[in-house]
Design brief:
Largest sheet: 10 strands, mixed
Number of helices: 33
Structural class: alpha/beta
Strand content: 5-15%
Helix content: 55-70%
Radius of gyration: 37 Å
Distance between the termini: 134 Å
C-alpha cells in the first residue's frame, strides 16, 4: 500500500516539474503589445490589422504629399498614387535592404490586395454611376463616329505592335502560355480604352464641359468606356477558359446576366425606389444597403462565371437611375471612403508591381517608345479625323483627339487584370504603366496648348457671327439701334439684371427685385367664365373683358439669377457639372427665385454653375457678358463667407473680400454690392443660449413668436452724391428706383470746393530751376481745369435729371445741395438724420458710389472694420457701415461699357 502511494506521489511530482519546464515559445502570445516588447511591424497572420494600418498610413500619406506639387501642374490624383507606388516598390525604396521585409512582407500582401480589390469593386460601381447614357443617346451621331474612330484605329495599331511584344516577351517569367489571338485582343483593348473618370475631371477643371469639345468627348467617352469593359470581359473569359466551348458558355452567361440586370432587376429596383420615395427625397439607409448588396451580388456572379468581379459592379452602376439626382446622392454616400482609403491602396499596389529596373536594354526601351507612340497616334489621329468629319474646326478636332488619348486609372485597372491573369509579365506591365503615365500627364498641357481660353472665346464669338475669322468686329443690329440720344438715355436704365443667388440673402434680394420691377399691375375683379351675364359693362356699353386683362409693361425687367456651387475633387461634384441642366431644374434656391420673380412682373431665368472657388469672380463676369446685363447685383454675405452653411461673427471675411474685389476688377458691366441690414427681411441673429434662471426654462420655452406682416411697405433711400463715374451711374439707378410709389428718396449733392484740393507734388525734370517752376505752374493749372470740368459735368447731369423729373415723382424725391470741406463727416451726419425715421417700414437704403472721389480731402478717417472692407467697398461705404448707421447699403461701381450722357 505504501509502495502504491509513493509511486503516485513520484508521478505527480514528475508531471509538475515537466509542466514547469515548458519552453517560452510554447506560452500564450503576450497581450501587452509594444509594452511587452512586441514588434508592431512584425506580420502576424492571426492579427494582420496592425501591419495593415502601417502600410495604409504610409501609402496614403506618401501619395498625398506627392499630389500637392503635382496638383499645381494640374495633374490628377491617380498620377501621384501610381508614382508613389513605384517609389515604394522595387524600383526605388525596396532596393533598401530590409525595407520590404519590414513594411511590405510577401505574406501580408494578400490582405492588402483584398482590401484594395474591395475598393476597386466599389470604384467601378461609382464609374457606372458616373456614366450617363442619356449623354450618349442625345449626341449619338458624333459620339458614335468619334468613339468608333477613337477605338478602331488604336485597336488596329495595338494589334500590330502586339505581334512584336508577343514574340519578344512571351517567355518572361510570370506568364502563362496563351494564343496570340487572345494576347492581341488584350493589347488592342489596353491601347483603345479611354479613362472616362479622369476625362470628366479634366474637362471640368478646364471648364470645357459646356463647349462642343466637352460635349463630344464626354458622349464619345461614355460609349468608349462601356465598349472597353465589354472587350476586357471577353478577353478575361478567353484567358480563364482553356477550351473555346467553355469560353462561349461564359460569354453567353455574361450576356444573360446583363439582360437580367437591365430588365427585371432594373425595373424592380426603380419601382422600389419610387415606392420608397428615394428618387424624390434621396436614398434612405435601407436603399443604400440594397444598392450595395446588388453591387456585391453582381460582382460575385461575374466573378464565379470567369469574368472579373469589377464588371458586375460596373453593370449595377449603369442601371441605377439618374432621376432626382439619385446617382449623385448615392455617390456622395460612399465616394470619400473609396477615394481616400481604397483607391490609393490599389494604385499603390500597381506601383509595387512595377519595376523600372527591368527596362534594362535597348529593345525594351524601343518598345516603350513604340507603345507610347501608338497610344498617342491612334487616339489623336482617329479622334481628330472623326471630329473633323462632324464639321468641327481643326483646332477643336485636334483637342478632341488629345483628350481621347487620356488613359488614367482605367488603363491601370486593365493592366492589373492582365498581370493577375498572367497575360502580361512584370516587364510588359511596366512598359504599359509608363505609357499610361505619359499619356495621362500630357493630356492637360496638350489641351491647354491646343484650346486655350482666348481661342475658345474667339471661336464662340465667330460662331455667333459677332466677328470674322481674323477677329474683326462685324456690325450688328444691336450696334445700329444704339444711335440717338433717346436710345442712349434708355440704355442707362437697368433692363437686364444679373443676380448672384445665395440662400442666406434671398429675402433681401426678393425685396430689391420687387422694387426694380415697379408697381404690380392692378387686376380687375374676376368673374367665373360660366357666368358671363354677371360681367361688368362700361358706361359706353362695351364689355369690360379687355379691362380685366392685367396691364403688362411692353418691356419688363429681365433678371437672370446665377447660383454658384463650389467644385471639389469629389466624383459627385463632377457629376453635378455633367448634369448641370437637371441640377439647376431641381435646385430649391433657383426655383424659389424663379417663382418670386414671375409673381412680381419680372421676366426671369436661372442657372447653377459649379466651378472652383478661385473661378467664382470669372464666372459672374462671363455670365454678365453673355446675358448683356446692365447691372450685376452681388449680395454681401450675411454669414461673412462664400459658404452658405456657416456663419461668423466677424464683419469681413478675407475669402469674400478677395472674391468681390476680383469680380469688381474683371467685370466690365455696372456692378452693385448689397450689404443687407434688415432690408425687406429679418437680419441674421446669433443662436440663442440657455441662461440660468429660477424657473429653469429651456430653449423650447423661447420659441419665436409669429412675425407680424409689414404694414408699412415703404422704403426711404438716401444717396450722397460726390461726383465721378460711379456716382453718376448710382444717380441714374436711384432715379429708376423712384418709379416705385413705395419709395422716397433724398439726394444730397456734397459740393466740395476745387481750391480745397491738396497740391500735387511737382515732377522735376532736367533743366533750369526756372524751367522746373514754370512746368510746375502749368501742371497745377491743368489739374485745376480738369477738376473744374469734372465738377461741371457732375452738376450738369444732376440738374438735368432733376429738371426732367416726372411730376408724379416730385413729391417723393428731394434734391439738396450742400457745400462742404469735410464730405465724409457731413455724409455720416445726414445719414443718421435720414435713416431710421420710420422704424416700422420695410427697410431703408443708402446708395453710394464705390470710387475714391478725387476731390475728397477727408480721407484720413479710419473705420473700425478694417482696411480690407475699405479696399472692397470704398471709403464712403466702409465709413457708413462701421459708423453703425441703421440702413442697408448698396455700393455701385460703373462698368467700362457704361454709356455716358
Amino acid at each position: 500500500m505504501s509502495t502504491t502511494v509513493s509511486s503516485i506521489l513520484t508521478r505527480t511530482v514528475t508531471v509538475a516539474s515537466t509542466a514547469a519546464s515548458v519552453s517560452p515559445s510554447d506560452r500564450a502570445t503576450p497581450q501587452g503589445g509594444v509594452i511587452e516588447g512586441a514588434n508592431p511591424s512584425h506580420y502576424d497572420s492571426k492579427n494582420p490589422i496592425v501591419l495593415f494600418i502601417i502600410q495604409a498610413g504610409i501609402i496614403i500619406i506618401f501619395c498625398r504629399l506627392l499630389h500637392y506639387p503635382l496638383s499645381k501642374l494640374r495633374q490628377p490624383r491617380v498620377i501621384a498614387e501610381v508614382i508613389g507606388g513605384i517609389i515604394l516598390g522595387p524600383s526605388v525604396l525596396m532596393r533598401i535592404p530590409g525595407f520590404q521585409q519590414a513594411i511590405f512582407p510577401a505574406a501580408s500582401m494578400a490582405n492588402l490586395s483584398l482590401v484594395a480589390n474591395i475598393g476597386l469593386i466599389l470604384f467601378l460601381f461609382l464609374v457606372g454611376l458616373e456614366v450617363n447614357m442619356r449623354m450618349f443617346l442625345s449626341n449619338w451621331k458624333v459620339a458614335l463616329s468619334v468613339g468608333l474612330a477613337g477605338m478602331l484605329l488604336p485597336f488596329g495599331l495595338g494589334c500590330g505592335i502586339a505581334y512584336g511584344l508577343y514574340h519578344q516577351f512571351r517567355n518572361d517569367p510570370g506568364t502563362v502560355p496563351i494564343k496570340f489571338g487572345v494576347y492581341m485582343l488584350f493589347i488592342g483593348t489596353a491601347l483603345s480604352i479611354t479613362a472616362f473618370p479622369v476625362l470628366c475631371r479634366i474637362l471640368t477643371e478646364l471648364k470645357l464641359l459646356g463647349t462642343p469639345v466637352g460635349v463630344t468627348v464626354l458622349a464619345a467617352g461614355v460609349g468608349n468606356d462601356v465598349t472597353g469593359w465589354i472587350l476586357l470581359a471577353l478577353c478575361v473569359a478567353l484567358v480563364n477558359n482553356g477550351s473555346g466551348i467553355a469560353a462561349l458558355y461564359v460569354l453567353l452567361a455574361c450576356v444573360g446576366w446583363i439582360l437580367f440586370l437591365c430588365y427585371p432587376v432594373r425595373i424592380a429596383f426603380h419601382w422600389i425606389l419610387r415606392r420608397n420615395g428615394s428618387l424624390q427625397n434621396g436614398p434612405s439607409q435601407s436603399m443604400i444597403c440594397l444598392t450595395i448588396l446588388l453591387c456585391l451580388a453582381s460582382s460575385w456572379f461575374t466573378g464565379i462565371i470567369g469574368v472579373h468581379a469589377i464588371f458586375g459592379a460596373f453593370l449595377v452602376g449603369l442601371i441605377c437611375p439618374h432621376e432626382g439626382g439619385f446617382a449623385i446622392k448615392v455617390t456622395e454616400k460612399i465616394e470619400d471612403l473609396v477615394s481616400v482609403l481604397f483607391l490609393p491602396l490599389y494604385f499603390a499596389l500597381s506601383g509595387l508591381s512595377t519595376n523600372i529596373g527591368l527596362l534594362n536594354d535597348g529593345i525594351t526601351w524601343a518598345y516603350v517608345i513604340g507603345v507610347i507612340a501608338v497610344a498617342f497616334a491612334g487616339k489623336i489621329i482617329g479622334g481628330t479625323l472623326a471630329a473633323r468629319a462632324c464639321k468641327l474646326v481643326w483646332r477643336e478636332s485636334f483637342t478632341i483627339g488629345a483628350l481621347m488619348s487620356c488613359k488614367g486609372l482605367v488603363e491601370l485597372i486593365v493592366l492589373n487584370i492582365g498581370l493577375q491573369a498572367k497575360i502580361l509579365s512584370t516587364r510588359t506591365f511596366t512598359i504599359f504603366v509608363v505609357m499610361a503615365l505619359v499619356t495621362t500627364v500630357s493630356t492637360t498641357p496638350l489641351t491647354l496648348a491646343l484650346y486655350p481660353p482666348w481661342y475658345q472665346k474667339k471661336l464662340e464669338a465667330w460662331k455667333r457671327g459677332e466677328i470674322d475669322w481674323d477677329g474683326n468686329h462685324l456690325s450688328t443690329d444691336r450696334d445700329s439701334t444704339s444711335e440717338g440720344t433717346v436710345e442712349k438715355l434708355k440704355s442707362t436704365q437697368v433692363r437686364r439684371l444679373l443676380v448672384y443667388l445665395r440662400l442666406d440673402s434671398l429675402p433681401s434680394l426678393f425685396t430689391f427685385i420687387s422694387l426694380l420691377g415697379g408697381d404690380n399691375a392692378v387686376v380687375a375683379t374676376k368673374v367665373h367664365r360660366s357666368k358671363p351675364g354677371l360681367a361688368s359693362v362700361a358706361e359706353n356699353g362695351d364689355s369690360s373683358t379687355e379691362s380685366e386683362t392685367p396691364h403688362i409693361r411692353k418691356r419688363p425687367l429681365e433678371v437672370h439669377g446665377i447660383r454658384i456651387v463650389e467644385l471639389t475633387e469629389r466624383t459627385s461634384s463632377v457629376m453635378k457639372v455633367s448634369e448641370a441642366d437637371e441640377y439647376s431644374y431641381r435646385d430649391p434656391v433657383v426655383n424659389a427665385f424663379r417663382t418670386f420673380a414671375q409673381l412680381n412682373n419680372v421676366a426671369v431665368s436661372g442657372e447653377v454653375s459649379i466651378v472652383p472657388v478661385d473661378s467664382f469672380a470669372e464666372t459672374i463676369s462671363t455670365s454678365a457678358q453673355e446675358n448683356h446685363s446692365d447691372l450685376v447685383l452681388i449680395p454681401w454675405s450675411e454669414s461673412n463667407s462664400i459658404s452658405e452653411l456657416y456663419a461668423s461673427k466677424d464683419s469681413s471675411s478675407g475669402i469674400q473680400d478677395s472674391f468681390i474685389q476680383k469680380t469688381l476688377e474683371s467685370n466690365t458691366r455696372n456692378t452693385a454690392i448689397f450689404y443687407n441690414r434688415g432690408f425687406g427681411g429679418p437680419m441674421m441673429h446669433e443662436p440663442r443660449t440657455l441662461t440660468r434662471t429660477t424657473s429653469g426654462v429651456s430653449l423650447r420655452s423661447h420659441r419665436d413668436r409669429p412675425t407680424a406682416p409689414i404694414a408699412d411697405r415703404s422704403h426711404h433711400v438716401y444717396f450722397p452724391f460726390f461726383g465721378g463715374e460711379d456716382d453718376r451711374v448710382a444717380l441714374r439707378f436711384v432715379l429708376q428706383l423712384a418709379k416705385n410709389t413705395n419709395i422716397t428718396i433724398t439726394i444730397i449733392h456734397f459740393n466740395i470746393p476745387v481750391q480745397s484740393e491738396p497740391k500735387t507734388s511737382p515732377e522735376v525734370t532736367s533743366g533750369s530751376v526756372a524751367g522746373a517752376d514754370s512746368a510746375l505752374t502749368i501742371s497745377q493749372r491743368q489739374d485745376t481745369e480738369t477738376l473744374y470740368a469734372v465738377a461741371a459735368r457732375d452738376a450738369a447731369l444732376l440738374h438735368t435729371l432733376r429738371d426732367s423729373l416726372p411730376s408724379e415723382q416730385t413729391s417723393r424725391v428731394v434734391f439738396v445741395d450742400i457745400a462742404t470741406t469735410t464730405p465724409i463727416a457731413d455724409c455720416l451726419t445726414h445719414a443718421r438724420q435720414e435713416m431710421g425715421q420710420s422704424p416700422k417700414n420695410a427697410g431703408d437704403l443708402i446708395v453710394v458710389g464705390r470710387g475714391r472721389h478725387a476731390r475728397m480731402i477727408d480721407m484720413e478717417q479710419n473705420g473700425t472694420i478694417g482696411s480690407e472692407m475699405r479696399k472692397t467697398l470704398g471709403v464712403v461705404a466702409e465709413s457708413i457701415i462701421s459708423g453703425g448707421i441703421r440702413g442697408s447699403v448698396l455700393v455701385i461701381q460703373a462698368g467700362t461699357q457704361e454709356v455716358s450722357i
